[in-house]
Amino acid sequence: MDVCHAPQYLPDLVLDIIFSNLELPDLFSCMLVCQNWYRVINDGRAEPWKLMCRRKIPKELLKSELLSQLHNHKAKLRALYHSWNPDDCSMHIVVKQNGFTLHRNPVAQSTDMARTKIGYNSGKHVWEITWTGPLGTVAMVGVSTKEAPVHCSGYLPLLGIDKHRWGWNLIDKLLLHNGVSHGNYPLLNNAPKYQIGEKLQLILDSENGILHFEKCNEFLGIAFKNLPKTKLYPSVSAVYGNTEISVVILLSLYMVK
């Protein structure tokens, strides 16, 4: 056996021990070394993912309902890295320590927005968004680019007010982009209003420039078409004090060309 390539053929147990001491960027680098290393690391149930989850995500959160749809440690860790960005939100929003939930402080005459840490301009991706506090007069969910400011004065439909945002107002059930209404949503007959605590799926198809939503596995219709190829970030805007909103990425697929 070539000594230079010997590490590739170490037993899985030994590789698990080695990989368990690495951080995420190093793990991704190791996946590129050879097929054997890729196989060991790519297993979402592998020991390195489990140990890293324990280091970075509180035990009670790992077992919580919030992450219940994620069936392995790799998926839960990925969700952490795709959660709310504490450095890309309004000054009136606090991202809780777990990263998955934001809290809007009670500030009058203010509309406040937050984005996730990672945006996409390729592939197809699914997030679960849950409003766990009062909605107020404007409660919007959608996508935005980095160019969209995260705060404005007054109570306004911020997530849809300019060309950098595409949003759905859960209160009046209207779609908005560039300050223009794009019609009622969901595209269903007699669709009930969103209720606090319901889980919404935001689906961004970057390959085809389409954004749509689902609720309880029901397709609500295409919300926006012809989205640009720039990076888009799942976003929310809120006006009600002490409201809380959670986000969890469920699926991320890239197209093979």
UniProtKB/TrEMBL annotation:
InterPro entries: B30.2/SPRY, B30.2/SPRY_sf, ConA-like_dom_sf, F-box-like_dom_sf, F-box_dom, FBXO45-Fsn/SPSB_families, SPRY_dom. Residues 10-52 form the F-box domain. GO terms for biological process: proteasome-mediated ubiquitin-dependent protein catabolic process; synapse assembly involved in innervation. Gene3D superfamilies: 1.20.1280.50, 2.60.120.920. PROSITE patterns: B302_SPRY, FBOX. GO terms for cellular component: SCF ubiquitin ligase complex; synapse. Pfam families: F-box-like (PF12937), SPRY (PF00622). It is found in: Synapse. The keyword rRNA-binding does not apply. SUPFAM superfamilies: Concanavalin A-like lectins/glucanases, F-box domain. Residues 62-254 form the B30.2/SPRY domain. Keywords: Neurogenesis, Synapse. This is F-box/SPRY domain-containing protein 1. It comes from Macrosiphum euphorbiae.
